[in-house]
Amino acid sequence: MPQRRAAPPVLVTVVVVLALGALIPIGYVVQAAVAMGWDELAALVFRPKVGELLANTVLLVIIGVPATVVLGVGGAWLVERTALPGRKVFAVAFAAPLAIPAFVSSYGWASAVPSISGLWGGLLVAVTVYFPLVYLPALAAIRGLDPALEESARSLGMGSWSVFSRVVLPQLRLAVLGGGLVVALHLLAEYGAFAFLRFDTFTTAIVVAYQASFAGPNAAALGLVLVLLCLCLLVAESLARGQARYSRVGGGSPHPPARLPLGPLTPVAIIAATCVVATSTLVPLTSVVRWLFHGGSADLVGLTSATGQTLLLAIAAAVCAIAVALPFAWLAVRYPGRLSRLLEGAAYLASSLPSIIVALALVVTTIAFAPALYQTAFTVIAAYVVIFLPRALVPLRAGLSQVPESLEEAARSLGVAPFRARLRVTVPLLIPSICAGGALVALGAANELTATLLLAPTGTRTVATSFWAAASSLDYPTAAPYAIVLVLLSCPAVALMFAHATGRNLR
Amino acid sequence: MTLRLNNISKAFGATPVLNDVSLEVPDGARIALVGSSGSGKSTLLRLIGGFEQPDTGSIALDGRELSSPHATVPAHRRGIGYVAQDGALFPHLSVARNIAFGMPRAARRKARVQELMELASLDPALADRMPHQLSGGQQQRVALARALTQQPKVILLDEPFSALDTGLRAQTRQAVVDILERSGVTALLVTHDRDEALSFGQQVGVLAEGRLVQVGAPASVFDAPVDVRVAAFLGDVVLVPACLTATDAVDCVFGRVPVRHDHSGGADRVHAMVRPEQLHLARTAGPSNATVVGIRSTGAGAELTLRFGDGSSAVQATHRVPLHAADAYETGCSVSVAVNGGIVLYPGQG
Question: Do B92 and A421 make contact, defined as CB atoms within 8 angstroms?
Fold first, then answer.
């Protein structure tokens, strides 16, 4: 019999404090807006430059998101439900762009085709880099669909197109909305890729403002508009989703689905799929490799030290994120209720904010309240934890809900004290989730550019910032080895995500 | 040497779950507590195990207070074994390591594990299997062997057979009763299955809406339920209006029948309860007291729906007859029904 119990006050206090910490960026924006007052804020916001940024950002989202949805869903359907030759290779290749950080891809494109720039350049790079964020959830959803549904539709006289549009697509709604939201949030938050292509969005403008006048009113006003845009997206997605829930996808289909033969369209499909792979992966990677061999002497010492510092920061971020996520997950799973949902929601909200806002907020907060922490590893790691918390929280939560409390009770009835029972039963069962979550955080942190640029201690150079320093001063050959390391660092995370989406167990 | 519960009450928020429950379980006895879902039976077990605390009342084992308003002994120091509904085997440990889990490090010997596996009728070859490789019945026996490692004075079983298939359930139940018999441990089982409760041990207790309404030997509780609700919970009943005569007998549709137990409390209007197994049918051309209103074949026999009396006071009951006797009846025919073994008297309804 499930009994609702009150959560221990210590646990609630810890989670409340952590949630408040994660909400510092929101607090910063609100505080800055209040401190400025309406007149100053209006003067900073209502000017042509901001209008231009707004138009750019909105166009980016309303063209970019549908484009990633078309590529993502189309790709997933092609590899999962049609007899496309080489579909197994394409299935992996469509996920591969995730291993190339957007700013590396844009460096690859811009250094190969210097004329690429502006809105269309930004869209080209962003869409090809981010469509896997729709492709993977769509792939998971299609794999979870019972083929019997499609067969029933066919037996009711529907053709292939009707089956796809009336049976498959509606069931992908949640995956498409979720993936589309993630893409939109990435579009708002991306700095490096757009800065490289000389395409101005709010995020790039905030960095420029920060470089010109530090965390002054201008940066804060732009930040406020960016946060509002981000909140609009969250609300829109939640309204579109309505009461529907992300249902758990079953372990597997009862029988493999019949694949749709493409017939005379086969060459068209192959050419289209190949074009996507070429623009998203082959062109940027070829360009990086070309610069690698163009360069002559590589700075191995700098590369090694940057890799070492990156790994240290990334591992520290992973450990901290797990430590922070654990109380959240514990509260959510063991003591479900309105309070735990609210606190969990706060964590997700905080991490939806663009990393530039998180970084600005931490700069302002540390200078105001703890100057000793300004530009230390602590602040960088805190930013990584806020930005990547869901990567740790989601697997931990899932893992913990697989460990029923009755196991701890059984251990206690065998004479084992509660704390030791947890240590001997619950912790070993959580280790796979801890490892998966930790790996995803570490790999995310290793590729982070925007917050790292603002927050890294003087003298600390990560692979991403070293790459950026070289690439933004147009020293392409020097940037190339760093780009390769960034891609290599991303591969394990992409493998993990791909395995998760296709229901394969890496354990 | 007894487990004693004194006036236990427990509420979750504003919902009362247990109300003034007192119970005494003698050493080495097996008792089954039966109740429908929501009757508070699992909560009672969790209170004894130490996973929840009672709001009022106390629990003592061999005179040692486990739970009282003054002090609480935590679950791991109670010496009370617990077998959960699904067995709660640790999924990351093999069978042998599950069984050895609660043993002190120095005492974790293979021989002791084998001894317990033997006691629980488990094939020694299963020792290195993981829990998910076992059948449901084997999992329950491993859980029992694991609980017995502590040499508990009392073992609690929380619906341990409900997750098993019907065939496996009876078999596992018998195996568990045999194991408990061999180990001589006091056992307390909760279940919603009346047959399971009645066949488990020396005593059965009936829980309804948080109260322990009746405790006793299974045969006597079945024979003389304290009220109609308990009677209906433990088996099928036929309830007819009756009229008490002076000489420990009643007049009712079955004629004059002796009273076995009188729970009417001296009420003016009374009802007589009989079990369908007590009914004796005869096809009759002469005076009859019932009509067959329906016949349903069950393959091995037939289930007759009988109607006693007529008009608003009519009572219906079902009665099974074997295949060879089923042909004697057809819908609409009159039968005379007699009762073997007397009736139990309750206050009149409505």
Answer: no
Cβ B259 vs Cβ B273: under 8 Å: no
A-B Cβ pairs (cutoff 8 Å, strict)? 76
Q: Strand pairing partners for B239?
A: B273
Q: Residue A387 is inside which H or E element, if any?
A: helix A377-401
**Rg of chain B in Å (alpha carbons):** 25
- State the alpha helices, DSSP H only, in chain B: 41-49, 95-100, 110-119, 136-148, 166-183, 194-200, 218-223, 228-234, 323-326
| CB contact set of A265 (below 8 Å; sequence gap of 6+) | none
Tens digit of pLDDT for each residue in A243-262?
A: 655 444 444 445 667 788 88
DSSP code string of A415-474:
T--HHHHIIIIIHHHHHHHHHHHHHHHHHHHHT--HHHHHHSPTT---HHHHHHHHHHTT
In chain B, the largest separation of any two C-alpha atoms, in whole Å, equals 81
* HSE toward the beta carbon, residue A207, CA cutoff 13 A: 22
- B2-228: CATH superfamily: P-loop containing nucleotide triphosphate hydrolases (3.40.50.300)
Q: How far is A5 from chain B (nearest CA, A)?
A: 8
A404 neighbourhood in chain B, CB within 8 Å: 86, 88
The answer to whether the CB of A58 falls within 8 A of the CB of A122 is no
At residue A57's C-alpha, the angle toward residues A51 and A62, to 5°, is 120
Q: Is B217 on the interface with A (CB under 8 A)?
A: no
Domain residues of chain B, as ranges?
2-228, 237-347
**Separation CA A498–CA B92 (nearest Å):** 26
Question: Which 3 state secondary structure label does DSSP give A489?
Answer: helix
Mean pLDDT of A337-341: 87
Mean pLDDT in residue range A77-101? 91
What's the mean pLDDT in A402-429?
Answer: 90
Instruction: Verify whether the Cβ–Cβ distance B42 to A1 is below 8 Å.
Output: yes
Domains of chain A with CATH codes: 47-242+267-294 (1.10.3720.10), 296-507 (1.10.3720.10)
pLDDT digit string, tens, across residues A284-336: 999 999 998 886 666 788 899 999 999 999 999 999 999 999 999 999 988 98
3-class DSSP state for residue B224?
A: coil
> Is the pLDDT confidence value at B229 over 50?
yes
Do A424 and B50 make contact, defined as CB atoms within 8 angstroms?
no
In angstroms, the CA A48 to CA B305 distance is: 88
ipTM of the complex: 0.79
Q: How many CB atoms lie within 10 A of CB A232?
A: 12
